């Protein structure tokens, strides 16, 4: 920030305008993040994202099961229900992008409908993204109350809507308006009665529903049941899922629903890849629910017309599938919904932080940027007279550094930020999902990157906490180190982003690791030799968990911990490199000071300059840190506020912490801002910055603390701009120097 005047070559007013724009931009980014967490991935369904798989190819070979059970209803023990789908279908062929994993299959010659009125479908595409509890819930919704079997009264079904924060009835009906273009027709329902979707008692539709519920009821356990949504292939084009098939892992049995009970798809059209990732603490939860609407695109089919065997002139069209040309694309409208007590707490914390950051930005504009602007608007003769009378003024570099002088050192803000980052780390599930899948929205990707980038502040908070502990233990050594090196806040953010980029594969794998740890995705490695069959899964114990298990916490937070630790190492490396650079750039030319003074620069070598960017480290400052008693290390303002400001400033907005002219030392404005001290009015008064508590109690007139008692006040005609601090011993040792009290104007 402080180097803009060197490489941008902009006029000073333009630089101030850019500073102002950045202050406003930082606030808008915080507001954007809060809006993203409440609207895009908030409690209400938005279906804000679109994704698509790469073209999936059909395998040349039929999937060969590892057991030979073929009798319907025979007891088996399987890792999933994939093989049991063969009870209704003659064969299964994987449709996948690689030869290792698959979740889509092409089922041939399937008997769909209930067993008493089955319909033979030559080719059915199935996608195993459905979980058993959603199928049971939707099926039970189609039955009248007195016709419901016991599973409809079990907790699996009764708590389904509250488990996922879903509506208990359809509110949107979606159909394909054009099979060739994929145009969808959405109809919003208003207070539609459940009876409008119910299956008539004794009908074939009711038999289809009951047969599906019977398969689910007899399966042990529901966690290993494989359910898949799909459609009957009838040529190239766009398809919405119209069928759901479920297969048992405990007996060779499966069932299909949707051919006769057509109301089922209205309850289930937005339940593809339904999952609820939950962080629980003492019964309180932060849940991120994922659900999708599916649209399938079939290409590469060949149609042929053959004459029928009857005597008339009728003919029928058949569809042949060529594996070399056949492709399947699975498009989804993706929705993430966040809810729970901990989510509400996290949003309230974010709202409080937004208020504090907005207030802090206002103080920066009014207290730093506006006075600098007024100074630049003054006539040239007034500027010259003011600079001559006060020896120095607020530089444009101070304004640049003030833009990034945040309120992160406030204990209140640090606690709120830590709470927000830890709780909102749950949003890594939707963010990583968006970044890992092929999303068709650039806006969604941008939002995901911006929200994921906010977690760099954890690195900053960790550095400040560790360094403050070191200052409390060894303040003298900490001051020495802070004098010879530093790391800026933007550098911490950039380093954290770079480290996160190095760990991107680990971060993007978090959703999958969480789903496996919470038993929400089933990966069957035993049913088909050499292949991994993936399916959605329902964990039956998820409603009774009070605390997240250690495996869930590890899957969620270990990648974050790795990124923070690696970023800390990188920050230390940057500080060491900067130390070596400054040691080589600014050789020690003066002997160590024996006076114990914090000020080291001689009056003849100090040039008060509005555009001076930085002071180089000197051997006198380093020697002073070794030789002075601990109380003498601090400037009077540091002693008044009881904060070793300079020693704690390893991370700061600019290299230079002090402004030196003659025997006088003053802290620069950005350093004071970072530690909760802000100037008010003409600069003669200090007050506590927003977000901090009790730094300045209640007001301090800086003239009373910057000069010794025997000094006379400045001439009435001179400017009453304040200095921040001066070292008492140094002023007394310089009694032979001209006794004109130096002042640092703050605007």
Automatic annotation (TrEMBL):
Transmembrane helix listed as a keyword: yes
Positions with biased composition (Polar residues): 592-605
Keyword Membrane belongs to the record: yes
Keywords attached to this entry: Membrane, Transmembrane, Transmembrane helix
Domain of life: Eukaryota
Basic and acidic residues composition bias: residue spans: 608-618
Record field: transmembrane: 341-362, 412-435, 447-467, 479-503, 552-581
Region (Disordered): 588-623, 707-747
Span of the signal peptide: none
Name of the featured protein: Transmembrane protein
UniProt source species: Pythium insidiosum
């Amino acid at each position: 920030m402080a180097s803009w005047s060197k490489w941008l070559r902009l006029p000073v007013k333009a630089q101030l305008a850019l500073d102002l724009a950045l202050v406003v931009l930082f606030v808008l980014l915080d507001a954007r993040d809060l809006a993203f967490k409440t609207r895009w991935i908030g409690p209400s369904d938005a279906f804000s994202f679109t994704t698509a798989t790469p073209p999936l190819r059909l395998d040349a070979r039929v999937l060969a099961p590892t057991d030979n059970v073929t009798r319907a209803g025979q007891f088996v023990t399987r890792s999933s229900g994939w093989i049991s789908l063969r009870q209704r279908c003659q064969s299964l062929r994987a449709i996948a992008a690689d030869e290792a994993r698959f979740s889509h299959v092409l089922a041939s010659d399937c008997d769909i409908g209930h067993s008493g009125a089955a319909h033979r479908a030559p080719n059915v595409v199935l996608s195993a993204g459905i979980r058993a509890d959603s199928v049971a819930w939707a099926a039970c919704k189609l039955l009248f109350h007195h016709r419901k079997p016991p599973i409809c009264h079990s907790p699996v079904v009764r708590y389904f809507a509250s488990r996922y924060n879903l509506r208990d009835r359809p509110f949107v009906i979606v159909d394909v308006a054009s099979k060739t273009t994929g145009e969808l027709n959405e109809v919003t329902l208003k207070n539609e009665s459940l009876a409008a979707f119910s299956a008539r008692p004794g009908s074939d539709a009711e038999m289809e529903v009951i047969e599906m519920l019977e398969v689910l009821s007899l399966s042990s356990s529901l966690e290993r049941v494989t359910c898949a949504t799909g459609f009957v292939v009838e040529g190239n084009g766009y398809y919405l899922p119209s069928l759901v098939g479920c297969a048992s892992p405990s007996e060779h049995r499966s069932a299909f629903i949707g051919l006769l009970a057509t109301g089922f798809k209205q309850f289930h059209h937005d339940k593809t890849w339904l999952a609820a990732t939950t962080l629980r603490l003492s019964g309180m939860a932060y849940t991120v629910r994922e659900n999708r609407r599916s649209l399938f695109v079939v290409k590469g089919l060949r149609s042929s017309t053959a004459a029928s065997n009857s005597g008339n002139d009728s003919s029928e069209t058949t569809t042949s599938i060529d594996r070399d040309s056949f492709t399947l694309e699975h498009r989804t409208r993706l929705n993430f919904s966040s809810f729970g007590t901990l989510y509400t707490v996290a949003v309230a914390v974010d709202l409080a932080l937004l208020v504090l950051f907005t207030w802090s930005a206002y103080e920066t504009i009014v207290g730093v940027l506006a006075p600098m602007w007024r100074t630049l608007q003054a006539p040239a003769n007034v500027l010259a007279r003011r600079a001559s009378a006060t020896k120095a003024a607020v530089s444009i570099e101070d304004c640049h550094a003030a833009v990034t002088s945040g309120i992160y050192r406030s204990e209140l803000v640090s606690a709120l930020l830590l709470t927000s980052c830890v709780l909102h780390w749950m949003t890594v599930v939707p963010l990583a999902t968006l970044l890992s899948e092929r999303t068709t929205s650039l806006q969604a990707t941008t939002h995901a990157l911006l929200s994921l980038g906010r977690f760099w502040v954890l690195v900053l908070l960790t550095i400040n906490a560790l360094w403050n502990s070191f200052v409390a233990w060894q303040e003298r050594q900490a001051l020495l180190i802070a004098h010879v090196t530093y790391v800026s806040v933007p550098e911490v953010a950039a380093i954290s982003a770079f480290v996160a980029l190095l760990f991107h594969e680990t971060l993007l794998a978090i959703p999958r690791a969480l789903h496996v740890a919470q038993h929400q995705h089933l990966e069957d490695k035993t049913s088909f030799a050499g292949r991994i069959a993936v399916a959605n899964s329902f964990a039956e114990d998820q409603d009774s968990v009070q605390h997240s298990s250690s495996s869930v916490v590890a899957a969620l937070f270990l990648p974050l911990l790795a990124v923070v630790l690696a970023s800390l190492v990188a920050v230390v490396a940057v500080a060491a490199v900067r130390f070596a650079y400054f040691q080589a750039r600014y050789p020690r030319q003066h002997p160590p000071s024996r006076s114990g003074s914090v000020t080291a620069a001689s009056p003849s070598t100090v040039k008060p300059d509005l555009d001076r960017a930085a002071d180089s480290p000197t051997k006198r400052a380093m020697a002073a840190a070794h030789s002075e008693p601990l109380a003498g290390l601090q400037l009077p303002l540091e002693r008044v506020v009881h904060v070793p400001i300079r020693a704690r400033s390893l991370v700061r907005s600019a290299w230079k912490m002090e402004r030196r002219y003659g025997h006088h030392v003053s802290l620069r404005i950005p350093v004071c801002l970072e530690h909760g001290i802000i100037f008010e009015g003409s600069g003669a008064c200090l007050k506590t910055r927003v977000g901090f508590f009790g730094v300045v109690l209640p007001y301090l007139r800086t003239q009373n603390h910057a000069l010794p008692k025997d000094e006379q006040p400045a001439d009435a005609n001179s400017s009453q701009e304040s200095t921040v601090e001066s070292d008492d011993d140094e002023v007394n040792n310089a009694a032979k120097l001209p006794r004109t009290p130096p002042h640092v104007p703050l605007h």
